[in-house]
Amino acid sequence: MELEHIAARLGVPAGEIERVHRLAGDRPSAEVPPVSAAPAILERLAVRADDAAEIQAGWPGADSPLWTPELRWLLDRSTALVRADLGGYGWLAPGPALPRYFVYVYLALVDVVTAYHRDRGIPGEVTRATLADLGRNLAVDRRMRGEGWPVMQSWLTLHVRGGLYELGRLQYQRGDTTIDLHIPEAGPLTPAAIDASLDEARAFFPRHFPEEYYEGFTCGSWLLDPQLLDYLPADSNIARFQRRFEILPYEEPEGLDADVETRRFVFRTLTTPLDQLPRDTVLQRAVIDHLTAGHHWQWRRGRLR
């Protein structure tokens, strides 16, 4: 099929289809499991019942009228694109941000990345915890009414390439000389939980990636904005988490609006007006009051050796 025809039929920019074609080439793809296996797989990936029902209803079966030849081509080539970077750890856009089609790319690659983990001796419980981030992100996207998905599908390519691991309370993304920390929506950031996770990570990477050398951990987050300390108690979990890091000098992040990201993570909505957002917690009130006063939040980076 002509690439311009595929783009027109899917209603996406031709440049995005050309990018998928260029990066995937004729590299091997992977098959989406049969729909009969869906309940067990989705349960293992912590997908909630409402999301699981939607995913199964849209399954790319041979007779599904939803899956046009153009969409099947995109699924196959997006899967090949992501699989080609197995072992990679950079952010990767797998294709156009069509509603949730990347879920099926993810499902097609579960067995591929599980084998990659197994070859490196990574425990099954780490594999399960890491890959179950799919269910968490689908639930967040449902709360956000689809606002979060374009970012989430690029994020989730890390999991099915072996670039990221969930070890206790935190997630760890491999890098060139440092490991990047990420904070999933999984309960309070208690000092004990953070200590246990960091200790696990310090043992995990030398054991399973002995050829890689890391100088320390880094983290980029609105949680590291020192302005938060003007609003939060000194003994709050967020304040104590922030004080672990050497906060690096501020640099304007390229392509990232810290006000938007703060609202994304604190309220899980990007479109609700400030005066209609909940004020139930100290953190929620801090975010709203700061923005209402005309100030801006900062996305800051920190280093932890």
Describe this structure in words.
This protein has 305 residues and is of the alpha+beta class. Helix content is 46%, strand content 9%. It has 13 helices and six strands. The protein has a six-stranded mixed sheet with strand order 1-2-3-4-6-5. Helix 10 (191-208) links the parallel strand 3 (178-182) and strand 4. The radius of gyration is 20 Å and the shape is globular. The mean pLDDT is 94.
How would you briefly describe this protein structure?
The protein has helices at residues 3-10, 14-24, 38-44, 49-57, 69-83, 102-119, 124-131, 133-143, 149-156, 191-208, 237-242, 258-267, 282-292; strands at 164-167, 170-173, 178-182, 216-221, 246-247, 300-304. The chain has 305 residues and is of the alpha+beta class.
The radius of gyration computed from the alpha-carbon positions, rounded to a whole number of angstroms, is 20 Å
- Give helix and strand order, one letter per element, not per position: HHHHHHHHHEEEHEHEHHE
Count of individual beta strands: 6
Strand numbers in spatial order across the main sheet: 1-2-3-4-6-5
Shape: globular
Structural class: alpha+beta
- What fraction, in percent, of the residue positions are helical? 40-55%
Main beta sheet: 6 strands, mixed
Low-confidence stretches: none
**Total helical segments:** 13
β-sheet strand percentage: 5-15%
| Termini Cα gap | 51 Å
Average pLDDT, rounded to a whole number, is: 94
